[in-house]
Amino acid sequence: MTIRLGLVGVGKIAHDQHIPAIKASPDYELVCTASRQGSVEGIPAYTSIEAMLDGEQVDAVALCQPPHVRYDAAKLAIEAGKHVFLEKPPGTTQAEVVALADLARERGVTLFASWHSRYGAAMDAARDWLAATTVHGIQAVWKEDVRVWHPGQEWLWEQGALGVFDPGINALSVLTALLPRPFFLRDAVLEYPANRHAPIAADLTYTDATGLPIGATFDFRQPGPHNWDVHAQTEAGTMLLAKGGNELWIDGELKTTEPEAEYRGLYARFAGLIRDGGAVDADTVPLAHVADAFMKGRRVTVEDFHY
Amino acid sequence: MTIRLGLVGVGKIAHDQHIPAIKASPDYELVCTASRQGSVEGIPAYTSIEAMLDGEQVDAVALCQPPHVRYDAAKLAIEAGKHVFLEKPPGTTQAEVVALADLARERGVTLFASWHSRYGAAMDAARDWLAATTVHGIQAVWKEDVRVWHPGQEWLWEQGALGVFDPGINALSVLTALLPRPFFLRDAVLEYPANRHAPIAADLTYTDATGLPIGATFDFRQPGPHNWDVHAQTEAGTMLLAKGGNELWIDGELKTTEPEAEYRGLYARFAGLIRDGGAVDADTVPLAHVADAFMKGRRVTVEDFHY
């Protein structure tokens, strides 16, 4: 049976990723949208989730708004008996995701906290390759131009927003999925523009119980092409997991050919959870790492940022 | 069989709480200490945990040092096959506690992340009383004079330290144990002395999926007597859980008579976990709330603090 889906928050990520993935999937029918401004041609458009839930029969909703309004929308939807797909990060705190998961279990509906980079086309190959060798060190480097990837998005810089951890949490979702052991922060430096409430760059030093050197560098100030890369030095050679989990290179040679299909993977997983009787998949570990960095990290002030 | 215990970090909390509780317990023999400066009369004293583990046969260690050195000591002890008791907070990040729990399970030893206020003498009575009525609002108020409770403790203010959340996490350990539903932060203000890296006060507004108003106020600048109180307004009257979980008052009348015995409770629990084949009890939820507050909270600068 087709899942009747309502899409909430029709902005950049909805147009770039959600709508194409939903249209390509046999599992879903996109029946309506709710957004203050955006809409999808030919589909009923509401300006609030309340009006959408009143006006249309939907089985599930996908929430793509900025994270600070996601909890209230998710709660409304769960209490209306709808399955809920959360864009990343799933909330502004770990605890609100835990509260939503608790509520979803109580109501018997699916809550899916999605981490799209974990569905990168080369993730399984990279995990298997690392598991078969001895790793000496691993570093995630997530650098991009915020003006290109988040044009004009003032919410990213507001009090309580994640700043560069918004893309950086993708790197943490990848590292936590790649490495067999839990890792933890030894040292962190967070760079705050003097005129902003959220970091524009972060340098993070992690390790695990074996003492493995693990690093992560995030920067929103990279002009030109972006890097969403994981580098590893191993007994069997050097690994580069490039393009946010989508290409595996070993010693400079490309080893994978699968095309990027992250959101198709996410929507297939969401449909599976719904068909599994309303199962909950709400991993907060990447967000716990971000919260740890804010708790333990050193703040330094850098020059103003303007779009 | 008596558990041979080594005590690591012989400072204020060790003298005030751990040593009396260990001496009063039939479960333990205190066989040695490791501390840069402190010691216990009549008991072999080492200046490092490494020397202590080399020099004495112990079954378990209790770690009472400041949290920033706790991970390395715990890892050493677990890898030496010792059961580990962690003072609160159990680490400087959530992730390092998760890593220790993972390692303890791998080695088959107990890891106990202790939350002493949860062992307050009136905690069960308060939980039962709240569960039997309708709660309209609940507030934790933890205010004390840092000069009295943490005299000269510079580590409290260093980068990555918790400041007023060091006592405040006790309040969060109590609220998370009292309330049946997960709650989450709506708004937070953290006050930082201009000359310090950690907050001296915090005002936290929480709620849960039912919309219950939940508040927490922490302050290190209270002269005179301290408050470690939880107030609740309910259908059945007003509740005051006073003295850090040790006295239950309903409508101004004291309802409990059990004396405070938090650390006796903790050490009984630790012995139970050890006898249960090396079970792990490492709840990180109170620390997750603290990390959420650092991630989401607004920082304001207040006047310098000096001891």
TrEMBL record, chains A, B:
Superkingdom, natural source: Bacteria
InterPro entries: Gfo/Idh/MocA-like_OxRdtase_N (IPR000683), Gfo/Idh/MocA_oxidrdct_glycsds (IPR050463), NAD(P)-bd_dom_sf (IPR036291)
A Pfam match: GFO_IDH_MocA
SUPFAM superfamilies: NAD(P)-binding Rossmann-fold domains
Full protein name: Gfo/Idh/MocA family oxidoreductase
Lineage: Bacteria, Pseudomonadati, Pseudomonadota, Alphaproteobacteria, Sphingomonadales
Record domain Gfo/Idh/MocA-like oxidoreductase N-terminal: where: 3-112
